[in-house]
């Protein structure tokens, strides 16, 4: 077995053994006093819930290679895909405790630590993927939010990868307006806001594990689901829900999180290199996402799916009340308004 594979296996076992352990700065075996030392390699574990063929893995792998090369091999980031280090809920705890150093987690996970993150996970916040990626790069907009978990949870939010534009797909008929969703059971993520999102659009929200969606639609438990084109095609949901309706109700976001104490321990030079290469990773991921989305649409059509254009203005209008219902503080409302003001479509 190659040395890198042995190291990954050892790291996986080490993380598994720390599940019940209490928080400790060096729980994962990383000596913060020697990170970046020119006489040794600092190994960093990065958890991902996607496969090796997913745009997230590809962009992260290239990021890790560039960072290692630019630091003369003093840093090596090992990526663990396919939830090898645990579910997203678990890896979030592992980063806090120090068992692992970095992870990609969905926006709804960070809501559990700070409700202010729901602003970036809300329908109507971002008008497009381009708007989303521009906003999360702007420290004037998101700097305070991204640093809000550093003291309480030892988490620095570095940036994010788009989840693409989410749409509703249905099993029996296409949609034109929100009225067509009346009585339909639509799978949604386990989030109060996302449940309300489906309700406002006229459907009956049904929280369910992602892996159960196919059989639930096939058996009639669900009438459809909401997701992006890539997930729709790769999970073969087009086989049981052939009508893909471009509601474009939400631009989803995954976050890159990192141990705050590790980030603080990095030298200024290494941290600058890290940030430069991470920004390139976000750009590459967005480009890969566009390519994969185009391919996913072509593959789904070839498999018999119909891509149907809805009355998007009607769906947007239906979702307008969600901001008033879920933005409960002056900070949340201010952040939402500031992000909306940067949308090119609003200017």
Lay out the secondary structure.
Blueprint: H1 3-17, E1 42-47, H2 55-70, E2 75-80, H3 88-97, E3 102-106, H4 107-111, H5 129-136, H6 139-146, H7 150-153, E4 155-170, E5 185-188, H8 192-200, E6 204-207, H9 213-219, E7 224-227, H10 229-234, E8 243-259, H11 260-265, H12 268-302, E9 306-308, H13 312-319, H14 321-326, H15 330-341
Parallel strand pairs: 1-2, 1-3, 5-6, 5-7, 8-9
Antiparallel strand pairs: 3-8, 4-7, 4-8
Content of β-strand: 15-25%
**Topology-level CATH name:** D-Maltodextrin-Binding Protein, domain 2
Number of helices: 15
Please name the CATH architecture. Answer: 3-Layer(aba) Sandwich
Average pLDDT works out at 91
Low-confidence stretches: 16-27
Biggest sheet features: 9 strands, mixed
What labels describe this entry?
347 residues; D-Maltodextrin-Binding Protein, domain 2; nine-stranded mixed β-sheet; 45% helix; 19% strand; globular; receptor; TRAP_DctP; DctP_fam; Tripartite ATP-independent periplasmic transporter solute receptor, DctP family; signal
Description:
This protein has helices at 3-17, 55-70, 88-97, 107-111, 129-136, 139-146, 150-153, 192-200, 213-219, 229-234, 260-265, 268-302, 312-319, 321-326, 330-341, and strands spanning 42-47, 75-80, 102-106, 155-170, 185-188, 204-207, 224-227, 243-259, 306-308. It has 347 residues and is an alpha/beta fold. It has a single domain (32-342), classed as Bacterial extracellular solute-binding protein, family 7 (D-Maltodextrin-Binding Protein, domain 2), CATH 3.40.190. Strands 1, 2, 3, 4, 5, 6, 7, 8 and 9 form a nine-stranded mixed sheet that branches. Helix 2 (55-70) links the parallel strand 1 (42-47) and strand 2. Helix 2 runs antiparallel to helix 12. The chain is globular and about 65 Å long. InterPro entries: DctP_fam, TRAP_DctP, TRAP_DctP_sf. GO terms for molecular function: carbohydrate binding. Residues 1-25 form the signal peptide. Keywords: Receptor, Signal.
């Amino acid at each position: 077995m190659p040395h890198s594979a042995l190291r990954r296996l050892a790291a996986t076992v080490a993380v598994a053994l720390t599940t019940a352990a209490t928080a400790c700065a060096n729980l994962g075996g990383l000596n913060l006093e020697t990170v970046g030392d020119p006489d040794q390699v600092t190994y960093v574990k990065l958890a991902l819930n996607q496969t090796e063929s997913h745009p997230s893995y590809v962009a992260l792998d290239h990021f890790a290679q560039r960072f290692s090369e630019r630091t003369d091999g003093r840093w090596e980031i090992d990526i663990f895909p396919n939830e090898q280090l645990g579910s997203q809920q678990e890896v979030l705890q592992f980063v806090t405790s120090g068992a692992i150093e970095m992870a990609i987690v969905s926006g709804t996970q960070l809501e559990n630590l700070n409700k202010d993150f729901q602003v970036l996970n809300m329908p109507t916040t971002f008008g497009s993927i381009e708007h989303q990626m521009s906003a999360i790069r702007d420290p004037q907009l998101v700097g305070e939010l991204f640093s809000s978990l550093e003291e309480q949870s030892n988490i620095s939010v570095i940036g994010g990868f788009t989840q693409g534009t989410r749409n509703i797909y249905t099993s029996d008929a296409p949609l034109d307006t929100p009225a067509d969703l009346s009585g339909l059971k639509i799978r949604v993520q386990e989030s109060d806001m996302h449940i309300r999102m489906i309700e406002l659009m006229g459907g009956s929200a049904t929280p369910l594990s992602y892996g159960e969606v196919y059989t639930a639609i096939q058996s009639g438990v669900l009438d459809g689901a909401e997701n992006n084109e890539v997930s729709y095609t790769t999970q073969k949901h087009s086989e049981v829900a052939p009508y893909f309706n471009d509601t474009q109700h939400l631009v989803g976001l995954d976050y890159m999180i990192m141990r705050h104490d590790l980030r603080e321990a990095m030298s200024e030079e290494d941290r600058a290199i890290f940030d430069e290469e991470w920004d390139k990773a976000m750009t590459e991921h967005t480009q890969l996402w566009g390519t994969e989305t185009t391919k996913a649409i072509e593959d789904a059509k070839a498999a018999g799916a119909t891509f149907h254009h809805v009355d998007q203005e009607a769906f947007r209008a239906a979702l307008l009340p969600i901001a008033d219902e879920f933005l409960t503080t002056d900070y949340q409302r201010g952040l939402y308004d500031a992000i909306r003001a940067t949308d090119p479509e609003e200017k």
